[in-house]
Amino acid sequence: MRLVYLALGWCGGMILAANSESSSVVTTLVWLLLAGTCLVLIWLWWPDRSRRWLALTLLALVMGGLRFSLHPTSSDIARYNHTGGLTVEGVVVAEPDVRDDRIQLRLQAQTVTRAGSTYLTDGLVLVYAPRLSHIAYGDRISATGELIIPAQYDTFSYADFLGRSGVFSIMRQGAVEVLASHQGDPLYAGLLALKGRAQEAINLAIPEPQAALLSGILLGNESGIAPEISEAFGAVGAAHVVAISGFNMVILSGVVMGLLERSGLRKRPAAMLGIFVIVVYTLFVGANPAVVRAAVMSAVLIIGQAIQRKSFVPASLAFVAMFMSLLNPGVLWDIGFQLSFFATLGLALYADPLTRWFDRLLLRLLPDKTAKTVGGFLAEPLVVTLAVQITTLPLIVLYFGQVSLVFLTVNLLIVPPQAALLMMGLVATLIALISPAAAQLLYWFDMLLLSWTIGIVRWFAALPFAQVEFYIDPRLVALYFMTLLGAAMIQATQPDWARRFGRFIRQRAVTTGVVFAGFLTTALLVSVFLSRPDGQLHVWLLDAGHSNAILMQTPGGAQILVDGGRFPSRLLTAIGDRLPFYDREIEVLILTQPDVFEYGALPAVLERYRIGVALQNGQSNLSEDFALLQSRLSQYDVVTVRAGYTAEFADGVRLEVLHPQAQPQLGDPIDLYTLTLRVQYGEVSFLLPADLNMEGQRALLDAGRWPLAAVMLLPQHGAARSLDRTFLAAVQPQVVLLQSDVANLRGDPEPDTLALLGDLPLYRTDEGGTIHLWSDGQSVWVAQ
């Protein structure tokens, strides 16, 4: 278990380093200094065993932080992001990812040509090429287009996802030309060619959607699976079946080990042969990082079961986490790695206890013979599903915001045939590589199992209660896993203090329950006390992408939400982090214009929070999204406002509408009639023009409105020709704020617009995330 302590320290150091805001050079120097201190502690504490391991764990923490600080956060080619058209030349270093509408290529850049000049460069670029392009691994190509930064979506950061594999630039709609072929590794190219032949054999033998599902299960190629099928598997909690995962690897090796054990071979040699099969299969399907990860996790589980040591799997998983994060620190934040890691841990920790519990339950309910028969058929799918869900369900809810209510039933119906489906498909494909006609009958048999799987998934996914949206605070997920890992470590080590504590709890169950309930009640009251309003006005410019999303809390505790962006999970998380946990009402909701980029996330907010009153400019929109928002708002008071409208709160906060001067009509430009607000508290005021364009700004001034404010939000995210000089002079701001997205395709903010600000302090969400301002009515403070 000592390896587990070292791994926890190592991963903890990486997490600390990831949340450090210092420059990489300063951070690295700090970690080096701390490493030297730990080495001194090890030398001083070595004779004392307990102190020795404490010092080693601290050293692991420091080394983890040091390793993360050395991990690159950009590449040389990324210097050319958002600099206009250019041509990148390099080699395709991974298997092309064929999609319905494009091919995605990972290009190792070698030169870049811009404005007639060619420069040496380095780094990976993700190139989107036309669907019918004939490009293979190892081709040297030139790609012409514009490099941009990957985007960040609602619950998924594409920039972080690609960054973990060293990609910091993408080229959409690239014009691609093949310059040479066979520039890659011959062995890997041969494996990909073999995989391509297997894919072709499957496509020729059975129709869709069965062929695409078998390709995903057998070859790890999910690109052919229709979105409707993929979404259905996700909705019913069966996504682990769709692609190569630890689940598939365990099935494959388990079948092989079972056959070997029945032949009289002992468990350990059978396990080694099972691992050999996994290695061969991994090479067969191309050995991409996701498949290698699944293979490693499965091998750890197989060895642990073979040597029958409960501590082996956790310790080995700890080693795997350290080793893989040593090679690539970003893997700890990879969703696939986290799900594979915790699924394997769940099987190791809970499969045996759940099996024993299930067997005892059946023996109580059924005759012995019937219980054994039922248990033999249901134990594996039920136990595997429950064991995996215990450790992965919180992650699924956290990342995807949904939970399936039918996952248990669906897995009971589709998991039992998976072993036969996988093995039959594998044997048929191997035969098809030699004689396609000889494999046809096996493919047809396998098609029946594939059709059963797809039919069950589709039927349950169509149920209205198949999945429900569910939000969970990330801190609760972290607490859950801390408790889970802590309990597992205590169970494995059985320290004296834990045994004494357990006896104490059992002997004084009632007293302990009362004390525990009292502790929770006290903690709850303290939380309520600390979340009370502090008598100041708080304004948060939320990091919601290239959209407007502003949350305010008045000194008396009333909340005002202005727009919300288009990403529901990001908005709900931002609100949940800042509102008291017991407060489920937003007193004022303001929609500045009928643009889905501003209101797209608001229907989700209206599902979770009550609204006191909603303010809007009265302009309509014929889209379904806007109709849904209006339907949700219909149960509340909705007020159409224009210039001259004011609202005053009992705590002294004043909300003024400065624009539009008249109610807009359906076809009017939305940026001309954007709702423009000024929030004033004491001597401090905030001007929020949202997406008001220059014509609207001049109309506001021509109407005699005086937009003077200490703090101003830059209109239209600082786009070109978005700020009128006269308007800026009339506002006379002391601080300027900008809501922008570093990956926006428009290239905002425009340098010429920023130049108008001169030396005014500028705070940007694309550089530091959410901006927090607070004021006592006399002064204003800013934190980011």
Describe the structure.
By secondary structure, the chain is of the alpha+beta class. The protein contains 27 helices and 25 strands. The strands form 4 sheets. An 8-stranded mixed sheet has the order 16-15-14-13-12-11-24-25, with helices on one face. The mean pLDDT is 84.
SSE blueprint and pairings:
Layout: H1 2-18, H2 24-45, H3 49-69, E1 85-92, E2 97-98, E3 102-114, E4 117-120, E5 124-130, E6 140-148, H4 158-163, E7 167-171, E8 175-180, H5 186-205, H6 210-219, H7 227-235, H8 246-262, H9 267-284, H10 289-307, H11 312-327, H12 335-365, H13 368-400, E9 402-404, H14 407-414, H15 418-432, H16 436-461, E10 467-469, H17 474-493, H18 496-507, H19 509-530, E11 537-541, E12 549-553, E13 559-563, H20 568-578, E14 585-591, H21 596-599, H22 602-608, E15 610-616, H23 624-633, E16 637-640, E17 646-648, E18 653-659, E19 676-681, E20 684-688, H24 694-702, E21 711-713, H25 725-731, E22 735-738, H26 751-755, E23 762-764, H27 765-768, E24 771-775, E25 780-783
Parallel strand pairs: 5-7, 13-14, 14-15, 15-16, 20-21, 21-22, 22-23
Antiparallel strand pairs: 1-3, 1-6, 2-3, 3-4, 3-5, 6-7, 6-8, 9-10, 11-12, 11-24, 12-13, 17-18, 18-19, 19-20, 24-25
Helix pairs in contact: 1-3, 1-11, 2-3, 5-6, 6-16, 7-16, 8-9, 8-10, 8-15, 9-10, 10-11, 10-12, 11-12, 12-13, 13-14, 13-17, 15-16, 20-22, 22-23
